[in-house]
Amino acid sequence: MDPTPVPVLRVALPVPLPREFDYLPPPDGPAPGAGWVGCRVRVPFGRGDGEMVGVVVAVGQADADPASLKPARERLDASPLLRGELLETLRWAAGYYHAPLGEVLATALPGLLRAGQPLPDTRQSAWQATAAGREVAAAPGRPGRPRELLQLLGVQPMAEDALDRQLPGWRPAARSLLARGLVEPVLLEPAAIVAPPVASPPEPTPAQAGAMAALRGAQGFQPVLLEGVTGSGKTEVYLQAIADCLAAGRQALVLVPEIGLTPQALARFRARLGVPVAAFHSGLSDGERARAWVDMAEGRARVLVGTRSAVFCPMVEPGLLVVDEEHDGSYKQQDGVRYHARDLALVRASKLGVPVILGSATPSLESLHNALCGRYLHLRLGQRAGGATPPRVRVVDVRKRPLADGLSAELLDAVGACLARGEQALVFKNRRGYAPVLICHDCGWSAHCRRCDAAMTVHAGGRRLICHHCGARATPPNACPDCASLALQPQGAGTERIEHALAARFPEARLVRVDRETTRRRDALGQHLASLGDEPGILVGTQILAKGHDLPRLTLVAVVGVDEGLFSADFRAGEKLAQLLIQVAGRAGRAALPGEVLLQTHHPDHPLLGTLLNGGYPAVAALALAEREAAAFPPYAHLALLRADAGTEAAVNEFLREAHAAFPAREGVRANSPMPAPMARRAGRARGQLLLDASQRAPLHAALREWLPLLRAMRSARRVRWSLDVDPTDLY
Length: 732
Ligand code: ADP
Ligand code: ZN
Ligand code: ZN
Fold this sequence. Notes:
The chain is α/β, with parallel strands linked by helices and about 725 residues long. The strands form seven sheets. Strands 11-12-10-13-14-9-15 form a seven-stranded parallel sheet, with helices on both faces. The chain has a six-stranded parallel sheet with strand order 16-26-25-17-24-23, sandwiched between helices. The longest helix has 25 residues, at about 605-630. The radius of gyration is 28 Å and the shape is globular. The chain starts with 7 loop residues before the first strand and ends in a 6-residue tail after the last strand. The structure holds adenosine-5'-diphosphate and zinc ion (ZN) (2 copies). One zinc ion binds near residues 440, 443, 480, 482 and 485.
């Protein structure tokens, strides 16, 4: 008689191998059962004392002789962290993105949990007023920080992170109040900290009311594209749908772009919903992120607002998914598991059987196509809410006109007039630094990065050169290295140069520059914008400014040079440029004051600009969809991109050539010839790529499934770094 076989744990580990690993259960423990699936385990891995944290994905019979297996060291969770629909979605993602399940599961977990830490204590450090403190708070008293703090806490206990936001520098005040017995620290569940809703919704416009009614009628899985011009009140529609979802006892997950998740936006959700709203984004600590995740998993938080990876947040009582600004590029993960959060939100919603709202003023052509084909419910908000009128758009033709630091006289006059009216102007340039390139006026030499196929950007008023691709820094030469001329000049203008020029021209105006350099710190953007206040002033910046904060006194948006985007090789460039222009233009005149938009260009006759001006985004989108259909590009085709890089071009070429030769022939699937990447050298490495396209997804994926094991087995693959990108958004 055979002894009863020992069940083994099949564990997915975050290693770049498309397989799982079998372990015996930890010694001295109970025999594993189905309840282990989705729990983390710590297992020995690799040589010596090496260990790793993985997730049990099955319990079953060993493939190999169990005697050859090692026992897992420790089970880390009493109950599964990943289960049900979420685990199914992750398995689906591993298949779809052709990524190892272990890497997908690790991507889905917040950092602390991935590292094997125990579930965090979800109680938060908070402060509350004592009985004596409440009495003092109610009586009149001397103004100042302690009093402000006491008054806040007299209403309700507040978490420390909320105090950090609402009353920066509150800690000394708390200490002095503590010494007087007026406040005390406490640990609270998030539910105890939340405020009742304080803001009430505005009366919906007829278009909003129509959209809200349509959403109430949605049953089960229902993708919805909510297309509404900027300021048309899409967020109000989400808030109503979320309120309905909460009233039904369910949770909602809201995805926002990286730069859309401002404290202002979060405060709007919190003020309106009156339930614990968790946040999940890169500005939070690992601990805060893990707490938010667990709070949603256990149902204490009812709404989670988060960026890309929040799409993996578990929900116990799922009711609704929302993807705001669904066209935004930050939803696509560009390394590791290259998933698209919007697409995963759709997969999750279908597995959960709940509605998913994709909102945008400028929907991606993929989503628009799905809506136009009738696969999505298409709801439109055509007008701005609250009486704001759409901004007037004017094209400034700068051909043959003198430009001072990239700015035309017309643009400067418009900024001056705006300031004279006591209003605010936004000057947009999608290029940071002082100037995009340093050139020799005599021979045409330009400063290039030694390690990249790219020009060095001029910074610090001309005193420094920085490569935006690899970070290399250099001091500009005094004379041209080729012809020894001293006529070296920064060519073109970035935000830094424009800021200088505007400061010289409008010395009395407040001037705030917002780009990646000035906003490195957490919530620097919010502080920058707050520093502008209601005073007349100028914002200069890159696309970081394109969304987020509402600035009621902002009435002029001046776009300096849209020309780079008009002639790009990327087939998505037109779509991206139109989206960006509309988003930036949407900053103007959001409130009662009318807005104006100036587009400064050398190509006033470019068809994209004409179409955009006359027909808005819908016209550009219709044109672009027709072009994509004719050229068989997405959404009318499906792409996958194999990328490789190595120290030498030869290694890249050899790998891609062999990969191309090994690609399994399939009807309707084409493996294009290997090509150098658009930037063929970056940070000293040669880069190449191989594009696959297909009219149907299924044969493409079948071919990829057959191909990947062949790639992994190739000797030439060991001399390169390579990755596969399914549905690439950048062909770079
Ligand atoms: P979107 O998300 O489409 O950009 P928002 O929901 O942020 O638009 O609304 C834009 C502005 O209009 C906000 O200040 C909002 O408070 C206001 N607003 C939205 N809906 C209404 C309404 N029905 N009545 C009055 N004001 C509204
Ligand atoms: Zn020269
Ligand atoms: Zn470089």
